[in-house]
């Protein structure tokens, strides 16, 4: 599935995007989606811009509709999965991620540590993210 900038002129997208996954679920009779990005290395400038575009897309009031496999899906969340926690050791990236979690209530983050244990962060436990990241350094 491709998110074409030209299809969403009301949004401030920097370019076309192709998310890794779209997780779909039924909610109140509608199909809702989560843009799901999987990261295995350090974040770079391109990743930060991509994040901003995804949050712009999902953060639109009521979500943003897309077609996935012939179904209308309203994307209203973003989830980032970090398969390698060591990629988050950089203090700049840590500060950026904590700020984004505070700023965006439609963001979920999951991080796999060195033992392969998954750690989930969302609005209910966003205050725990900073402590978790500090222990990686």
Question: What is the fold's blueprint, element by element?
Answer:
Layout: E1 21-27, E2 30-39, H1 45-59, E3 64-68, E4 71-82, H2 91-103, E5 107-112, E6 118-121, H3 127-134
Parallel strand pairs: 2-4, 4-5
Antiparallel strand pairs: 1-2, 3-4, 5-6
Q: Describe the global form.
A: globular
N/C terminus separation: 36 Å
The strand count comes to: 6
- The Cα radius of gyration reads 15 Å
Helical fraction? 25-40%
Total helix count? 3
Q: Give unreliable regions as ranges.
A: none
Largest sheet composition: 6 strands, mixed
Arithmetic mean of pLDDT: 92
Structural class: alpha/beta
β content, as a range? 25-35%
Written as H for each helix and E for each strand, in order along the chain, the element string is: EEHEEHEEH
Give your account of this protein's structure:
A hairpin with a 2-residue loop joins strand 1 and strand 2. It contains three helices and six strands, in the order E-E-H-E-E-H-E-E-H. Helix 2 (91-103) runs antiparallel to helix 3. Strands 1, 2, 3, 4, 5 and 6 form a six-stranded mixed beta sheet that branches. It has helices at 45-59, 91-103, 127-134, and strands at 21-27, 30-39, 64-68, 71-82, 107-112, 118-121. The protein is 26% helix and 32% strand. By secondary structure, it is of the alpha/beta class.
């Amino acid at each position: 599935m491709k998110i074409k900038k030209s299809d969403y002129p009301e949004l401030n997208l920097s370019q076309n995007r192709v998310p890794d996954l779209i997780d779909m679920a039924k909610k109140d009779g509608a199909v809702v989606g989560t843009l799901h990005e999987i990261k295995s290395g350090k974040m770079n400038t391109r990743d930060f811009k991509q994040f901003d575009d995804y949050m712009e897309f999902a953060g639109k009031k009521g979500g943003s509709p897309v077609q996935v496999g012939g179904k209308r899906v309203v994307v209203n969340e973003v989830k980032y999965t970090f398969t390698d926690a060591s990629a988050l050791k950089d203090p700049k990236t840590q500060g950026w991620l904590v700020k984004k979690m505070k700023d965006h209530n439609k963001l979920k983050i999951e991080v796999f540590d060195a033992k392969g244990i998954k750690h989930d962060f969302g609005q209910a436990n966003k205050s725990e993210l900073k402590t978790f990241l500090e222990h990686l350094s």
